[in-house]
Amino acid sequence: MLKRKIRAEVESPLADAVLRGDVRPGDSATVRYNADTRSVRVERSGEASGDRDKTQADVPAQHA
After folding, report:
1. Is the pLDDT of residue 41 over 60?
2. Which of 9, 29, 38, 41 has a Cα-to-Cα distance from 63 of 20 to 30 A?
3. Which terms are listed as keywords in the entry (predicted)?
4. What residue segments make up the domains of the chain, in order of their start?
5. How far is CA 41 from the centre of its chain?
6. Dihedral Cα 34, 37, 40, 45, nearest 10 deg
7. Angstrom distance (rounded) from CA 32 to CA 29
8. Share of residues in the chain with pLDDT > 90 (%)
């Protein structure tokens, strides 16, 4: 059950961010959960070469 929850709350929003182009190869990404809005935020921290430009995408969390 925990594995399914992680997939729904973390892996799916991260995969969506990759597919949209918000996170690209070589980028670092941080996934944060906001309990107030019940949403998952994927933050891109730039390319591995040192670009620290941040992109954020909020995705509503799925609750079973």
Report:
1. yes
2. 29
3. Plasmid
4. 2-60
5. 5
6. -60
7. 10
8. 9
Token pair of 31 as six digits:
């996934």
Q: What is the mean pLDDT of the chain?
A: 78
pTM, full prediction: 0.60
Which of 35, 27, 28 shows the shortest CA–CA distance to 9? 35
pLDDT value for 20: 92
Length in residues, the chain: 64
For residue 28, give the nearest of 12, 39, 14 by alpha carbon.
Answer: 14
Side chain identity at 17, as an amino acid letter?
A
Please compute the mean of the pLDDT values over residues 33-58 and round it to a whole number: 69
Q: Please measure the distance between the N-terminal and C-terminal CA atoms of the chain and give it in whole angstroms.
A: 11
Q: Are strands 39-47 and 27-34 parallel, antiparallel or unpaired?
A: antiparallel
Inter-residue contact 17 to 29 (CB < 8 Å): yes
